Amino acid sequence: MTTDIATRDEHATVATQQQAPQQITTKSALVIWAEEARVVANIAVSIAKTPFAGQLRGKPEEVTAVILAGNEIGLPPMAALKAFDIIQGTPALRAHAMRGLVQSKGHKIQLVESDGEHCVMRGRRADDEDWQTVTWTMPRAALLGLVGKPEWKKQPQTMLVARATGELCRLIASDVLHAVPYTSEELRDNTPTYEVRPAGAPLSVAAITAAPTATPTPVEPQHDETPGEQDDTDDGLWQQKTNDQPTGWPTVTQPGGEA
What we know:
By secondary structure, this protein is mainly alpha-helical. Helix content is about 45%, strand content about 10%. Helix 2 crosses helix 3 (about 60-70), helix 3 (about 60-70) crosses helix 4 and helix 5 runs parallel beside helix 8 (about 155-170).
């Protein structure tokens, strides 16, 4: 009897489980990313208060974005803070960080030649046997208007290496870079420079609010002449010019006179 009751209970339990719909909850990758982002945002508040945030100190939102962006391309959080620069509002990887990131994926990058006048680098993908070579020279930089910029004047060799690095990494491993294909050195070269002039003397409130002073219009001298009257001075000069004939002029024969 006991065995029969136990058997019926087991069958009832199995039937109930089969009738109940299976509810399987699967979170999408975007939801998981959003949850992780909230955790990172909480941590970023603390990181933004320290010198490790660098140029992002006091900016927890941007610290969060940099950490998330670095995570997508394989950079640890603190490494991402040192790998990114914000140039004119655009995130970019520093050249050494881009080179290290590409090498971490198994791709090969070699510096062949480098000095203050030229840089030759070569690289190849991990699954490829062919090498790609990139050459940057000062004449090439001059064509782009780069040699006059401050960093190019101070350290031309470093800037040539940075340019060659960016071009080579895009050439052999664009899939590694994703949304950050340019180095911060490249973006900084495209940033316009401005002349800083010394500040002038501050204007007073009275000078700013004062009404503009009208410039007097020059008045041309006017000659009041009475109709019928002539200038005696002009008449005298004209009379003098008429009476005084230059030497060598022929005498004009008058009617009834002698030639």
